[in-house]
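Practice problem: predict the structure.
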Amino acid sequence: MMKKIFVFLTTFVMLFSVFTFIKGAVNSIGNLTVSVNPSDRGAYGEYKITFVSHSDLKQGYDRIYLQFPQESTIPCTSCAYAHCSDCFLINGTRVAGAGPVYDLPKTVYFTVPSPGIKANETVEILIKESASFQNPTVPGDYTLKVWTDQEPEKAQAPFTITSTTIQNLAASADPEFTNANIMLSLDFTTGRLGDVMNGKNVYVRFQDGFILPQKPDTNYVTINGENPGSVSLKGNTLVLQLASSIGKNANVKVKFYPSFGIVSPNKQGSYLIEVFTDSEPTPVSVKIDFKDKDFLRTLLETTPSEPNGKNGYFVSNVIVKLIAETNTSETPTTYYKLDEGDYKVFIDPIVINDGIHTLKYYSKTKSLTEEEKSVTLKVDTKPPDITLNIKDLTYTYENTLSIKGELSESGDVYINGIKLNMLSPLSFEGIYALKDGQNFFHLVAIDVAGNRNEKLLTVVLDTTTPVLTVDSPKSNFEKFSNSVLVKGNVYPSNCFVLVNGKMIEVDANGNFDYKLIPSSNNNMLPVNLKAIYPLTDKSVEQKFIVFFEKDNTIKLQVGSKTISVFGETKTLDVEPFIDRTSGRTLVPVRFISEALGFEVSYNAKTKTVLLQKNNFKIELIVGSKFAIVNSVRKNLDVAPVIKDARTFVPLRFISEVMGYKVEWNAETKTITISP
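Answer:
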């Protein structure tokens, strides 16, 4: 009996252990594999995942979970499912549902479709490329984790993201001798996936034997003509950080100048250099041979290190340094000459200014003399000058605009980004339609060296036409005497108004009032008015012919202070009067004489009045009945008198002595004096 009980208990324990083992064994899926096509970095991949499920998975209920690496880019899975439900298949059938697992990063689920999955059945999950699951951007080995609702322990499988390699790597060293400070040039082409963003790196790894600078200087290395953002040395690898991005399938030239400090191996032989980038991390190698030989050479270094303009031009002054090198113990001396000058010993750096210059140089020691070398340096630091037919701010009333100009040197001209066809190497023209209001033109001139000059032009289309209203003259053949009154209004009030070509004053309201005094005695006078709108020079004109009669008389009246002088009314400070004793009319001598063009002076001590006009001279003495006319004595019927502090002379004096015609109207007591 006890034996039976023992056998029963032993069997029970064994069965329990087997059950427990089997239960533990099926906590995770089996035979997990992952493949990606294409496996290119950053590409949208088609993912195929296979595994064996040890448990039944019910349709529409159980889920399968996939956790991608952190570097993958996973779209909104439910969104992708909504617009592309055929993008996710389980055993060839569209999944019953899909979505993200929010509490786990980079994790998605798929709901098992009909008819479900049986235990120990192989499961194939296909995520199509059109689902936009993006591969990591950095090539390397990654892991995908998979589990199910029935087997919650995560299984994982590796997959590889690949990249291309650089192509056509070539290297040259100058000189190709041992133990020399070399100029090293590396040329290659990036691959199909070789685009490298600025801030990423190019790596150059050297075989043992090279001497590398411990403190690399970015000024003496260029990548496609540009200094890198930084250079560091890690072991025997130089790390060059890009200052500008490099595209895929692009040609790349890396140049290390002698002053960078790379020294060739001291033993003759072949040496490897490897190059790779962050985007194409698989190293590609190239071989350089170095020989043992005594050598002497002169290295030429410029600052900037390479032409920084177009067509081989430097657009800044160039500093040239000549470096003599030899692997002998002798001390070299370097000689140079610039253009047609004489050879000089090189001591200090040479500054090369604007122009195209030829620099010749060589070095020599006691036993070695280098062959003369020559280099052409093209320097242009000045942008082209632009001369235009319009101002930076121009107003016009024309609907089309011609922009003409000339450059100070040959080059290209762009207006609003469009290149113009040059009329000649220096001249250009562009015709443009204008819209009302402001029109903007961005003009850029670029010379052969790449120097730029820019102008921003503003052209305002203003169709304003001046409105000229003339109140006087009112019509043709209107009569005027002494002066022609030109009166009217112009709109806008900022217009210029010209009368017979002379600009006249216009007030803030556009009114003008001008007396035109003719310079000739012609009876018929043209009066031409022109209004000009100053912003566009648009103008209108009105023309008249008027009659003009010049009044050359002086009219005054006894007992009145009003006098008319050549048609213009004026006021006397004293009035003419009739002397009661003699019955003669007396007039104020200063006012009348000055109106007739005489200069008048008075000597109060001698009471002498002096009248002078050109060579005609008259002397009068108050109280004396004679006058001295050009040294000839002439009698007066009435002596000059002083009244109201003014000197009066007899009216007859005007006619007889001064030579003017005098008319007397006894009825109105009016005096008219005329030539």
